[in-house]
Amino acid sequence: MTRDYIIIVAGGKGLRMESDIPKQFLPIMGTPVLMRTMKRFHDYSNKLQIILVLPESQQEYWTGLCKSHSFDIPYTLATGGPTRFHSVKNGLDMIPADAEGTVGVHDGVRPFPDIEVIRRCYDAARTTGAAIPVTPVVETLRHITSGTADRSAYRLVQTPQVFTVDVLRKAYMQEYTETFTDDASVVEHAGHRVTMIDGNRENIKITTPFDIAVAEAIIKKASSTH
Ligand SMILES: Nc1ccn([C@@H]2O[C@H](COP(=O)(O)OP(=O)(O)OP(=O)(O)O)[C@@H](O)[C@H]2O)c(=O)n1
Ligand SMILES: C[C@](O)(CO)[C@H](O)COP(=O)(O)O
């Protein structure tokens, strides 16, 4: 059956956030990061099948949070692994063996992908097999030993990274290596080309406490312009 999936990975430790509450559950203007992220994809399409990847130790806490926030967007739950690669693999295992269509992978801690960016990534993946959102480098880029680099040759990489189910499944059959920092690196290592799509700058990855302040500013700005 042809279906579109999104694997939302939230199986990490969030060490750089240095918070007692895992960063995916931290409230931004009252709503936990992960709920904002899942809502964004549900707003893109309520037919999208959401697969949420969470560490086993956090699943009960999350269920309680959903109850207290009356959060009722449907999803299938998978268990996180030791690296992002293994978490994605566990999410992929939830997709039926005979499934066709597309599958995106998105960081649970990126709550602000633009809906048009999500749409463009899914549309491009349907025709090219693999599409990722990127943004230009907006500052001078310096290599630590060889000096200033040509920034026009580089892009910053975001998620959702979207593929046909077949392409992503085959790529994730490879053995893990430390160079697999995102899904595009896994797919390219398997020999498939990746198409770059213009991303949106607000689509930050919440990584350190500073990013929570930026996220609040993004929400305030969005609500003042609507
Ligand atoms: N074993 C892992 C590691 C990371 N992730 C997810 O991958 C995304 C990007 O990772 P990052 O922001 O670097 O998160 P952490 O690994 O949790 O952060 P840190 O490196 O600070 O510990 C996050 O949504 C994170 O939850 C995951 O699902 N499973
Ligand atoms: C996948 C990713 O979001 C692309 O920018 C990013 O690489 C994940 O974060 P990490 O710091 O590399 O774990």
Automatic annotation (TrEMBL):
Enzyme Commission code(s) on record: 2.7.7.60
Principal EC category: transferase
Keyword set includes Nuclease: no
Domain of life: Bacteria
GO molecular function, one term: 2-C-methyl-D-erythritol 4-phosphate cytidylyltransferase activity
Entry annotated with the keyword Transcription regulation: no
Gene3D superfamilies per the UniProt record, alphabetical: Spore Coat Polysaccharide Biosynthesis Protein SpsA, Chain A
A Pfam family that the UniProt record links to this protein: IspD
Site positions per UniProt: Positions MEP for the nucleophilic attack: 151, 205
Site (Transition state stabilizer): 16, 23
Reactions the enzyme catalyzes: 2-C-methyl-D-erythritol 4-phosphate + CTP + H(+) = 4-CDP-2-C-methyl-D-erythritol + diphosphate
Alphabetized UniProt keyword annotations: Isoprene biosynthesis, Nucleotidyltransferase, Transferase
Pathway: Isoprenoid biosynthesis; isopentenyl diphosphate biosynthesis via DXP pathway; isopentenyl diphosphate from 1-deoxy-D-xylulose 5-phosphate: step 2/6
Family: Belongs to the IspD/TarI cytidylyltransferase family. IspD subfamily.
Protein's job: Catalyzes the formation of 4-diphosphocytidyl-2-C-methyl-D-erythritol from CTP and 2-C-methyl-D-erythritol 4-phosphate (MEP).
UniProt cross-references to NCBIfam families, sorted A to Z: ispD, PRK00155.2-3
Protein name (Swiss-Prot/TrEMBL): 2-C-methyl-D-erythritol 4-phosphate cytidylyltransferase
Gene: ispD
